[in-house]
Sequence to fold (524 residues):
Amino acid sequence: MRQDDTATGELATTTDAPPRAGWVLAALLCAAVVCNLNTVAAGIAVPAIGAQFDASQTSLNLVALATGLGLSISVLYLGALADRYGRKQMLLLGVAGTVAAGVLSSLSWSVEALIGAQVFVGLASGMAFPTTLSLISALWAAGPRRTGVIALWSSVSSMASIAGSILAGALLTFASWPWVFVLSVPIAVVAFVLVLLFVPGHVGESSDPVDHFGGVLSAAGLGCLVLGMSIVFAPGGALRGGILLILSVVLLAVFGWRQARARFPLFDLRVARQRLFWLPAVGGLIAVGTLSGTLFVGEQFMQSVMGYDPLQAGVAVVPAVVSLLLAAPLSARAVAALGTRSTMLIGYGFLLAAMVSMLLWREHSPYPLVGFSFFVIGVGVTFVMTASRRALTGSTPVRRAGMASATSDLQSDLGGAIMQALLGAVLASGFTAAVSAKLSASPDAASLSEQVTHALQSSFASAVHVAEQFPRYTTEILDGARASLLDGSLIAFLIGTGVILAGALAVRIGLPGRDEERRLTTTG
Fold:
């Protein structure tokens, strides 16, 4: 910790941990679990939601990434507000908000209403999730103990995302899809009580004014970026997606210009320009985004191509939960012994192995191959994220802890939203292209109405509806839809492999080795 942070971080610097540290950590982990359960609730229910609303693949992509969208546009601004006005208060508001937003999601009457409600879930989680890590940074002194707490927080957060798929799949075996959106409510109630009773308030907070205009710019720019990515590759979405992406570049450029000149910036570029900040941030964004994107595509693949029911699809990811738990202590020791760069590269090696194995998935692939993919991706994400988050918190003064935690959450939320949007759009595009090719080659293509053709190209759920209307051709329609979804999924996995390789190359070239990292940390 730097000398100029002593006054604002008295509790964090005078003791290694807060009073009643076990209860404090339990409260923060419960809150993190609530937020991460909410991010995956829609993903496992996508086939059922698509069947009820007859939604297009693009609409289903938006349902699945809406929570991540709400999180990614809000974490920077809300993290700064928590730093200034009270992290505990913001955490309590966020946990309570997730309950209201979850209930609203369960009552949605259309796919558009559900998308809006899920964005609200993301905004509420944006109040809570970044605050959990900023409180860890403020309450635990820098050193091995904080590194271990961060490793546990990182693993529990990722594990909750995967466990949410299992719980949602189990719930869908005997209940309808609206119930998955209130899955986290009991945990939220427990988290609220624990935070209220045990988490200290007003520790190491900033007295600097908040850059509200910068907050609006960041939210608008990130929102345009995620929405643009979600539709630019989708059928018919090139123009709208391109406009949104151009607008995001302009808004984020203006945001950067303002932050460079503001007396009290929302995002301190003096901190962010450090190699031990921005490179781990980008590297972690790619890793956790890969987890979110492959889970989203994989859940649809398992249910629609492999024929898994929701429970089977949820249970299929159990190996990832196991590997996240096993890898947490190993990754913390690796960071201490090897440094940030080597630990992140080990993680990227596991991620690459996972993506290559997913390229081998087919309709009748044995489960051991599927389980291996999820186990390895869990190990990879844990190693990358433990190293990344340790570097972020270690290079940021405690009075700017909200910035570090918000950046860490951007890795999860923006990375997850971008990769889910990208892979989901590629999946939709690949599905439509494959169906179009099959329709063009069919001798019955001329007899199909435009409405039926559009439905076949829209999504797997829509193709199922068409099959029900034409029972004579059910087998041919469903076989063609499965083959088309397989093609789209493999293209998405291939792009994910390329992104992983690019991330590993950036980490290898850009980050310093262990000895230089220690020197920079000591002198910084």
Residues 347 and 452 are 46 Å apart (CA to CA).
